[in-house]
Amino acid sequence: MSEFQNLLQEELKDPEFKKEWDDMQPEMDVIRAMIDARIEQNLTQKELAKRTGIDQADISKLENGTRNPSLKLLKRLAHGMGMQLKIEFVPMQTQLRK
C-alpha cells in the first residue's frame, strides 16, 4: 500500500474526516470519470476544448475541482468525446442507510 493509502486509511478512522471524505466522493467520481474519458481517447485539454467550444482553462478548473460542472456542461463534454452522459442512482451501503 502506498504512503498516501496508509495515511488515508488512518485518517478515515476519524468519523469527522470520514464524513467529509464521503461527502466529496460524488464530485471526485465525476472528475475522475471526465479525466479518464479524455485520457482514454488520447485527448489533451486543448483538443477537448476545441471539440466542445469550452475554454481549456475551464476544462482545467473542472478537472482540478475548482469549478463544479452543470449537467449541460457535462453533456457538452461527453458529446465532444463521442459519448453520452449517464447518471445513475445506486443503493447506499447498508451501514450508510441508518
Automatic annotation (TrEMBL):
Stored InterPro entries: Cro/C1-type_HTH, Lambda_DNA-bd_dom_sf, TransReg_Diox_bact_type
Tree of life domain: Bacteria
Gene3D superfamilies cross-referenced by the UniProt entry: lambda repressor-like DNA-binding domains (1.10.260.40)
Keyword DNA-binding belongs to the record: yes
Keyword flag tRNA-binding: no
HTH cro/C1-type domain location: 34-90
Name of the protein: Helix-turn-helix transcriptional regulator
The organism of origin for this protein: Maccoyibacter intestinihominis
Lineage: Bacteria, Bacillati, Bacillota, Clostridia, Lachnospirales
